[in-house]
Amino acid sequence: MPPPAASFLDRAAAGNALAEVLAAHELLARCAPPLVLAIPRGGVPVAMPIARQLNGTLDVLLAHKLRAPHHAELAVGAVDEFGGIFLADHALSLGATGTYLSHETARQRALIQQRRQAYTPGRGAPHVAGRPVVVVDDGIATGATMTAALRAMRRLGATPLVACAPVGAREAIGRLSELADAVVCLETPQPFYAVSVAYSDFAETDDTTVIALLAMAADRP
C-alpha cells in the first residue's frame, strides 16, 4: 500500500490548522494566554501561528532524543533541559547499555546547553509553574521527545498542560494522553510511515530560522 497523500503544505500551514483547533479548545478557553513551547527545531514554525492565534508567548522547550546505537534516527529515550531523562522499554534490547547511555546523555545535554544559549542568549528556560503551557512539535513518531518534555513540564508545575502536533503515530499519541491534560493531534494515520509523509515540504528547519522566528515573535506587539 503506497503512503497517503500529504495533509499539510509545510510546517507553517500545519501550525495554522492546529491553531484553529486549539483556539476552540474548551480547556484553553478557560485559561490565561498560554506559554507556547516549541520543541526545536521543527516544532518552532508550527508553534509560531499557534502562539499568534492564542495570544500566547512563544519560546522553546529543549528535549533531545537519545539515539540508539548504530541507528541514529531511532530513539531509545530522551533528555530534557531541566535534568530529566526518559528511557524507553526497548532501550536495552537495542544495545543501549549503561555505558552507552551515559555517553549519549552527556552528549545530548551538552548540545541542549549550546542550543539554549544560541536561541535565547542571556536567559534560560522559561518559568512554567502555575502557567498554562502548550507543547508543540511538528510530529510524533515514537513519542520519546514529547514524553520527556511533558514529564519536565509536569515536574515543574505547568497547569494546564496541552501537547499538540499535526501528525503522530496512534500508539504514541495514546501514551501521551497519560502525561498531559489534553493531547491534540490532527492526523493519526494507520499504518504510520513517518512524520515527513504528512508534509509536501518537510525541508529541515535550521538554527538560523529558529532564531529568526523567536525574534519575530518577541517583536510582536
UniProtKB/TrEMBL annotation:
<protein>
    <recommendedName>
        <fullName>Phosphoribosyltransferase domain-containing protein</fullName>
    </recommendedName>
</protein>
<feature type="domain" description="Phosphoribosyltransferase">
    <location>
        <begin position="29"/>
        <end position="188"/>
    </location>
</feature>
<dbReference type="Pfam" id="PF00156">
    <property type="entry name" value="Pribosyltran"/>
</dbReference>
<dbReference type="InterPro" id="IPR000836">
    <property type="entry name" value="PRTase_dom"/>
</dbReference>
<dbReference type="InterPro" id="IPR029057">
    <property type="entry name" value="PRTase-like"/>
</dbReference>
